[in-house]
TrEMBL record, chain A:
Species: Salinarimonas soli
Catalytic activity as recorded in UniProt: a quinone + NADH + 5 H(+)(in) = a quinol + NAD(+) + 4 H(+)(out)
Cofactor(s) of this protein: [2Fe-2S] cluster
Gene it is expressed from: nuoE
SUPFAM superfamilies per record: Thioredoxin-like (SSF52833)
A biological process from GO: inorganic cation transmembrane transport
NCBIfam families: nuoE_fam (TIGR01958), PRK07539.1-4 (NF005724)
The protein's name in its UniProt record: NADH-quinone oxidoreductase subunit NuoE
InterPro entries tied to this protein: NuoE-like, NuoE_dom, NuoE_N, Thioredoxin-like_sf
UniProtKB/TrEMBL annotation, chain B:
GO cellular component: membrane
Protein's name in the database: NADH-quinone oxidoreductase
Keyword Translocase found: yes
Organism listed in the record: Salinarimonas soli
Gene3D superfamilies reported in the protein's UniProt record: 3.10.20.740, 3.30.200.210, 3.40.50.740
Enzyme Commission numbers on file: 7.1.1.-
Catalysed reactions listed for this entry: a quinone + NADH + 5 H(+)(in) = a quinol + NAD(+) + 4 H(+)(out)
Amino acid sequence: MAVRRLAADEIQPKSFTLSADAEAWAQEQIAKYPEGRQASAVVPLLWKVQGDCGGWLPQKAIEAVAERLGMPYIRVLEVATFYTMFNLEPVGRHFIQCCGTTPCALRGANDLMDMLRGRVGEQRHVTADGNFSWLEVECLGACTNAPMVQINNDYYEDLTPEILSRIMDELAAGGTPKRGPQQGRNASEPLGESVTLVEPSLYDGSMIGAWRKRFEETAPAAEANAKAEGERATQQAATNPKPAKPDAGRVVERPVGDTPAVRAAAGEKPVSTGKQAAAAEPSRTTVAEGKPASETVAPPRSRKSYVNTPVKPEDGRTVADAPASPDSASVQTSGTEKTSGS
Amino acid sequence: MPKIIVDDIEVEVPAEYTLLQAAEMAGAEIPRFCFHERLSIAGNCRMCLVELKGAPKPVASCAYAVRDCRPGPNGEPPVVLTKSPTVKKAREGVMEFLLINHPLDCPICDQGGECDLQDQAMAYGVDTSRFAENKRAVEDKYLGPLVRTSMNRCIHCTRCVRFATEIAGVPDLGTIGRGEDMEITSYLERAMGSELQSCVADLCPVGALLNKPYSFNARPWELTKTESVDVMDAVGSNIRVDSRGREVMRILPRVNELINEEWIHDKTRHIVDGLRRQRLDRPYVRENGKLRPATWNEAFETIAARLRGVAPERVGALVGDLAGAEEIFALKALMDGLGVKNLDARQDGTVLHPAYGRASYIFNPSIIGIEDADAVLIVGANPRIEASLVNVRLRKRWRRSPLPIGLIGENVDLTYPVQHLGAGPDTLADVLSGSHSFAEILRKAERPLVIVGQGALTRPDGLAILAMAARLVREFGGAAEGWNGLAILHTAASRVAALDLGFVPEEGSLTAREMAQAGAVDVLFNLGADEIDVAPGAFVVYQGTHGDRGAHRADVILPSATYTEKTGTYVNTEGRVQLANRAAFPPGEAREDWAILRALSERLGAKLPFDSLMQLRQRLYAAAPHFADIDSIAAGNLAESIDMLAGLGDQPGREPFRGPIEDFYLTNPIARASGIMAECSALAHGAKLEAAE
């Protein structure tokens, strides 16, 4: 969907008056609402006027509707631009709305649109003879018969580019092509043979009461099974309170980094001389091992960030701004050391 | 009243309160964008989410009423959490969505420093964006000469749309398109038509709608804020004057529930450039028919020389529409010293006179009192342009529950439905005699309000009309116990103070219109009266601020200070005394008015007995004690005034009432000097021509 604006001034009609027919329609619609609530009839009236104007709403028509209903112009413009079924630009005599939502797209709507693009032009473009224009729209609710288009008020379903092209030829020639599914099925019945609900036993009466019978046979066993499982679980919970899968859906906690404590826990020597020497190197404040130098370092981030620091703790790299703010902690400790020393 | 627990604090609030109001009662601050106390509730920004115990999701507190909350299982009061982690997370999510399409314009955005989004992003924003798609871009819209748009910044709170529709009553703005493509615009980008339109820039919580003339001129933190009072009309709207150095940069409204709530009209806000242009910055003396720059001494000498030997009966003094009480008092004292009796502050020729009591010339029910009225009759006034904020109050009253409003005078659009009864005094007489159907409505009303405008009072038969209005109020119970139904609507900010101080001719002395006629007086002191044509002949001393009509006619010009450049006392149409503070200094050699009069008095041999503003005010308060009672109204005795008025006047004429204001945007010298006002006037004039076609 794109920004919808009124059509260019050059193609706007200079004037518009509600036809007698539209006026009668308006009165009928307004009568449905309480006194003073005539503005509620804005959508039906706009729809009627759109039909009278050849499928679109000129500026003067919008203003005429506003004046008829005693509404500010902007209020009617709001409605006309909100609903995409109100066209704000001229459309072809046969206005093709091609569904492009997922089911139709999976069944070949894109081919239809390619064909339309080739034959009619880009969306919203009216052919020189005034016969066709097309628009990709969202789901029109005929997914079972995808892909489909709506031409003016009729649906044409089960299309291929060839079929659609044939329909358009017929429309252009002034004919009335067959509506609905185009590939030989009735309504939404399956194409070709039925593949479900085909078992004869479904229809000979033998299945009546079968479900209840099967339930009566299997239910006691299933119940006993469930009871035993429950008891087992209760026993297990009493002895071992851990849930079955501790990391199910949770973040796995990994050791924070290559620290002496981690090394001690892993059975290594807590302090390695090589690492100590590297850490004491005055020109560097961080130690990175086993990584190529070209690897980018994550920019420093505040604690309030949605983006995880991409550095993995296992890499042995000092994380720039760790979540628990070790900086402040170290500052504090050094401060206390000082006071205790003096 | 139901109880509710907000963050462990139990408060008792009315059931119709929203959770947001309840939370504020409990001292919790709720962030918001779309919610505004004076507008309808939209509930579309979601920033005010709070946690309500028992609700499955956070609820929008601005749109959730206390009465809709369910009590706890044992009848405990409902519990609302406004600072819980859930709430914080919810609001952070909302903020992230708002910021997805909001450009990072803060360094070049005029709203920077006073932006709700900026402030709240400090509390709920994050430093990074997870949004890697294209940002939305929206075309900027033209909304007229006063509001600049930058629609990329719009967060669709729809406050502007609701303001235009509800408060201003001119539904220009709307939202077109939907979803991501929703845009705020006026119909086909026409200029907004409301006289309050620039308030939408104040309401905009982001920098999407901005003050156009002020664009890129200053930053809020470098401005000095001075609390002051507006003088563009007689309503006395409370304003804040923002100045940088010597220059006034912008004018904003200040909240005063009794007068302007938090709105001001466009003329109040946008005459800022008029304060700089066409200013008189040194004295002038007319020599051989041409004005030449002079020193203060020369100017005073010229006046003293001309005045020598002139009888006091051949001297007159006029006061214009923008004068403060101090200079009116000083001029009156000077004229008393010279024995001059020809004094008048009513340059439009209105018949109001302090002799009939204070209640005969003020807006007795007060502006907030309009909300109590249950029937209104407007006589010869167009409140929409004569006193826009009074009109806003009338509209507010009408919106709360529609009431019958009758209009006698020009059939104008007041933004709410009125019954146009007729055009002239005949209709008023019909209503008074009871032969008009509206009389029955007034009779049934408990608190009828009769608003009389200057359009009815500046006519030769004005006194007769005032008398009829007084009889009408008496007849229909407008002066009953606890209700004062006679409301005089002024258009000049100085008028009520001048009437309070008795700056009107005594019996047998000349009125303003008589003084302006050829040969009426020899010397005329003109304190900023620019709306009156003084006929050739008299020697005119003009003391004012702008090179306007009065200065062109002057023989000596004494440059003085505008209302932003002096501390002054103003009395609005209700009779409310208010102080305006100095925000800047007058240009060049211009001085404050009272000081000029004090210096002149010494030359004229009638030295005024005060050397400072404080001493002046002491004498002013001694002469008129109610001036000391700042921000309140000294009520007049309405019944007495009505009795006095009712007997007056003979048969009124038959001509229809005509409004006193021809062009809303050009009513005083400051506005006429303003380029912005000229543009607005041309636009309004063009719109009028278009409508007439």
